[in-house]
Amino acid sequence: MFIVVIGAGEVGFNVAAHLSREFKDIVVIDKDEEKLERVSELLDVRTLPGSGSSMSVLRKAEIHKADILIAATDSDEVNMISCLVAGIQSRIPKKVARIRDPEYANSARLMGPERLGIDLVINTDQEVVNSILRILQTHRAKDVVDLAQGRLRMASFVAEEDNPFAGKRLQQLRGVLTERRLIVAAVIRGERAIIPRGDDKIQPHDLVYILGTPEAVSDMFLGFDPGNARPPRRVMIYGGNSLGLRVAQALENTGLQVWIVDPNEERCELLASELDNATVIKGDLTSSEIMKEEGVHKLDAFLALTSEEEKNILVSVLGKRMGCKRVIALANRVGYIPLAYQTGVDVVISPSLIAINRILQYVRRGRIANVVTFPEGQAELLEVEAMETSDLVAAPLKDLGLPRGILVGAVTRGEEVLIPTGETRIQPGDRVVMVVASDSLKSLEKIVSVKLEYW
Amino acid sequence: MRQVIGILCFLNLCVGLSMALPLGLALWEGEQEALDFLKGAVLALLVGGAGSLWGLREKITIGRRGAFAIVSFGWLTVSLFGAVPFVLSGVLSPLDAFFEVVSGFTTTGASVIPKLEGLPRSILFWRSMVQWLGGMGIILLGVAVLPLLGVGGVQLYKAEVPGPFLEKLRPKIADTARLLWQTYLVITLVQIALLAIGGMSLFDSVCHSLTTMATGGFSTKTESIAFYGHYHRVIIIFFMFLAATNFSLHYAVAKGSIAQYWVDREFRLYVGLMVAFIALVFAYLLVHQGGQWLERLEEACFQVVSIMTTTGYATADFDKWPPVCRLVLVLLMFVGGCAGSTGGGIKCVRFLILYRYLQGELRRLLHPQAVVAVKIARQTVPQPVVHQVLGMTLLYLGIFAVASGIMAGLGLDLVTSTSSVAATLGNIGPGLAQVGPAAHYGDIPDLGKCVLIFCMLAGRLEIYTVFVLLFPDFWKK
Fold first, then answer.
1. How far is B171 from chain A (nearest CA, A)?
2. Chain B: nearest CA to A44, how far in angstroms?
3. In A103, A233, B97, B149, which residue has its Cα 20 to 30 A from B433's Cα atom?
């Protein structure tokens, strides 16, 4: 499969990194030669300097041979023009574009085959809002993802010393988990992703991913400290840009008490007119005095959503220190995520990670319905349909002899959700959620007898 | 470290496998050297196989440092193992055998053997085979067949393939390496066919094609190509010319149209220089030596093309030519072929960059505020590349000066000491005077041979790859 990626930024780089690990042919185009230098240093892909919206550059990239074009620059306009120009040169490639402005993104006519011909529009803002809502509702969770049309939920937490999971082998936990119909999907230790087996031990400070029905997952998180657990009521948002505004509106609608802070006076006026109940404050939360003044310590949650990721992380750390129960920071750069967790930020939300997941999911379309990449990028969660020809349906799970690095996390059969045990037998037509280490992706292809490509 | 050793051993495994060909030939011919090749192959296979199994168990991640180490030490160890059959068969002493094999792998073609007739055919074939493997690059072969390398392959590619730019024909480096080797193989096969059609024996056709396409210059005849008639000389001129042209360009032409050649600025300079110097030498020869003009033209063509492409075949003893012509040949030794070819020397594209750079410097003298970009065919050459080219050229000349000094210090005359260094550093082969086309390198003192071995390796790997190992920072953690 031949893929042209425009933009070597966070999203473009990481998408290229994931796909090149699967031995796909990739060309990365960017204006910035220094960024390209980094790409060719670290990845086995071809790089091409120039603008992705230029006819001649796209021709040089052999766009007529490409199966997919991914426009992932920082500019909506460049992304749209690139897709348009590529569409003029060749009808073959499917076109994926990241578009932030909701006015563009929501216009089906503009994106449709008659005009720009973009097959998939990636607008991360809406998904960021949804994921913030989910995370706020799940006590203590680091990240919450919904799968299988909302019938399954995966959430992660850090196993602190006082956590009931810490220091236990999975065999010891099996009884509790099976009873609650939950499964440990993955464990991130430092920079390593572990696909767990019975004899693996959860160590303090591991990041543990739990998979199950949404209710079961929420209950489990509430069970960690029943005394303190209550739904959040008071939330402060720092950063009144379009994302901050959308989050504030969504939170207002669920009946929370919202404060929104922005240093810019005009922006605050706009916020005040757009929001009904929220308190708009003009200010800069960069010192502990101002934080105290605004009552950050009394909050249930503090969200730092400005466009400056470094500032978001620092302000969140400050807020945590001031006594806020939960701090959430927005960080685009995937590499900052583990760093931010180490500094004490409770939740890091990364729009680029969301965009990367969406793109990978699209590239592997077909029988693969969903893709979630774990923060360190060494493991992925895939939703696969079990084919009649696949090895998966041959025997009960315990007799399949699945290699280490592949785990069957959940099975949905029609409306029913199964959390599998060794006895479970997968039937053709089931949708199977699998967690796979990146280096086992190749062997997974054989097992599910689905090429991870879509033609 | 472990992976570096693993890949080094894997390369030797490849060399061991390729010894199967001369081994087969020796068995076929009933030569007793079969046993020597068998021993050599088994040794390389055992060491290479064990080392690869030990070193290549995990996923390979090599950085720049590892890549430089692999390429430099790879060439050294491969030459060591390649020399084993020569030593076992008693044809050469260990140092001479190592010199001969380094000269082979680096496609220099400087020989220590005074008389080739009477040598076993398997030994002659192995000499040619070694050149062919070294021509496109033994590391590139490793990159092509070892799919695990991934991005580490890019670092290896950059450290081995000559030229200032990284040219990727396909997005994946392993595919690029495979395409280059395929192109190389196809052109070689065509040449074998053409030579054989003209009546050269199949064995000689194969051997000469292997060394022509590698721009190596080992022959199976002591007289070199002078042994053959006009048809073969013309064919060989043509293929030497192809071999020193950028192989990416050949591939582009095969995919597109013949016009692709002329679009390339380096190719234009390469052809231009070649034609100009042929004309010059031809005119001088005609005036000085007289005789049939067509014969003189062929003589001039063959010698100039052979030296400029850094092949090193000869059809005339150019050591007896008038001084101007000899000087021209020595200067051409520094120029060499195109980047991305099997040829050696400094390479035409670097001269192009240097020329544009000097133009810019002169302009800056007149207009101190001017902002000058070094451009080739409307494309700006990035500053770091320009600096690399300047640095490499300086180092090249520096090595030439120091090594010639050492050679002269060993008691060799001026012409011999300078031309032997120029001819080995540029991977040409024959020089002038005592190492001229009618002579050989056997009488150079042992220390001198060691210096020339270093020159051949440094020249083939374009100086930096070897020199970075001599830089103390390289060894610090």
1. 4
2. 4
3. B97
